[in-house]
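Replying to the earlier thread about multi-chain prediction with a worked example.

Input:
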Amino acid sequence: QKEVEQNSGPLSVPEGAIASLNCTYSDRGSQSFFWYRQYSGKSPELIMFIYSNGDKEDGRFTAQLNKASQYVSLLIRDSQPSDSATYLCASPGSGGSNYKLTFGKGTLLTVNP
Amino acid sequence: NAGVTQTPKFQVLKTGQSMTLQCAQDMNHNSMYWYRQDPGMGLRLIYYSASEGTTDKGEVPNGYNVSRLNKREFSLRLESAAPSQTSVYFCASRGAGPSPLHFGNGTRLTVT
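Result:
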């Protein structure tokens, strides 16, 4: 069973702070990772994806991938109340099972004004 | 473009009733998926279809059947609904390679 684990939180940060969300995975062959944001009552929406070791930045969001340690993280700089949501980490794994995207259980982030 | 369209948005069933959730995508994606989402359990894969003409079980397939009607449409059927199937159901599709899932807006199902 390929697993994707997230710290379930909830995580609470003040407005303007950096929010750090973490995810570990068990399939060492995993090549790609996705971060989704899900507002309450809504469907998940993609905010970042990363395929290579290192950092990938997109506006206030930075995804970090460390394949040796098998973790991927999402940093949100200058957090805003509108960032309050559940963040889901996902990976298709490796080999013949890569059609199946496995999700972590999500981390609930609250940004306090 | 509509993306991924699911119907209905809400449904209430009595135990033992049957229903079909419909899903269609207009992005010419090969792969389509059905997930359920329950509090504390995250998104769990019910069934998926890697390409037209194929379907495979996911993590929680019991009590469900699927049909990949054509490249655009992938339906999920509950033959005899049970209260344990009360959940939010999401359909999704995905293009080739290591590409992300695109989700529909979800169906909130309650079985009494």
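Chain B has no helices and eleven strands.

Feel free to reuse this layout for your own posts.
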